[in-house]
Amino acid sequence: MKEKDVVPNIETCNQMLSLFLKLNRTHMAWALYAEMFRMNIRSSGYTFNIMVNVLCKEGKLKKAKEFIGHMEALGVKPNVVTYNTVIQGYCLRGKFQGARAIFQIMKDKGLEPDCYTYNSFISRLCKEGRLEEASGLLCKMLEIGLVPNAVTYNALIDGYCNKGDLDKAFAYRDEMMSKGIMPSLVTYNLFIHALFMERRMGEADNLIKEMREKGMMPDAVTHNILINGYCRCGDAKKAFSLFDEMVGKGIQPTLVTYTSLIYVLGKRNRMKEADALFSKIRQEGLLPDIIMFNALIDGHCANGNIDHAFQLLKEMDKMKVLPDEITYNTLMQGYCREGKVEEARKLLDEMKRRGIKPDHVSYNTLISGYSKRGDMKDAFRVRDEMMNIGFDPTILTYNALIQGLCKNREGEQAEELLKEMVSKGITPDDSTYLSIIGAMDKVDDLEENDDK
Prior knowledge:
Number of strands: 0
PPR repeats: 9-43, 44-78, 79-113, 114-148, 149-183, 184-218, 219-253, 254-288, 289-323, 324-358, 359-393, 394-428
InterPro entries: PPR_rpt (IPR002885), TPR-like_helical_dom_sf (IPR011990)
Helix content: over 70%
Radius of gyration: 29 Å
Order of helices and strands: HHHHHHHHHHHHHHHHHHHHHHHHH
Family: Belongs to the PPR family. P subfamily.
Keywords: Repeat
């Protein structure tokens, strides 16, 4: 167009800017915006809203706020969409104070918040588990005459599902339906996932049947939820049956799909099939991510193939897939299962060298490894190291130490640890008491033998 001296109109530019925003190519949006300025193409309110959105996507919230002032200086009045965009930018990053400030500016300008405004707040509050505040905002919406939509209810349903309060989630489902808002595929996916997490398979199957009756076909997300759910339950047959159904319907499996299948194959000690599937994925051009590598490494470690697990770590380095604390924790657990606690200890040092921060699982793994061998001095040394960097002992820490002490027939020290954990508000579980009872039985046996 430029070569033919045809000046693009603002609608053409806005469509291009909108596309670059959608594709997350913000640098291209700015390049085009600068070119528009050079060509004296006058920006519309829609143009400014797009560029405010670009700034929010880049995380430049202060500049987005300043950009609204720039709009006004050029005689373009910001509208509800402008303010909603900035409010959402603040909410997505959990910056509620900034979002509320924009909300107030918007109201001071005589613009009334709409459903989209409240949805930004409600969605983020639900993500942060602040469900009562989110529910309060829904009540506020209803009070001022705003009609919530599926996005509003889905956010609340998701929040209560994540909390494990399915009764409340279903109550919101009933409320949305009573207002004539039909559950979407997203709604069904949220419930199906939550029901699988609670192992309420029958109810999940009923929801899938209900979906189909309403003409909603399960999508890739639904299939991934179902496959992952059955994999977590160890039902490889059902998971692969759903995978075949998914492929048969022309739904493209994702990395999530394949990772779930690799996970269940590892749990069923079918590592040859897991390796074959991993090779197939790579042949199809899919690049394995850290989660898939971790699932495969976990499978090999759990099945005693520690050498193969380390080959996969090398493969990760070749493919520039950075390992994380889960990768190393899994390898450490593999070594500790074989009694090679010193090698596991070296891995902890390697983690630090690579800039990966060990977590409480890393330290508990070593404590458990030393305790199982009865090396209690080393176990307590790791416990002290863990506490020095700010990790408090968990029930796993105490159980491992108590088991080790009981194994060494150091019952009095084990009882002291039991008192300590209770004083810190940690409730002993079956494992704790079984260790102590087992130690007492051993002492009784020894005393009986001495009497004889």
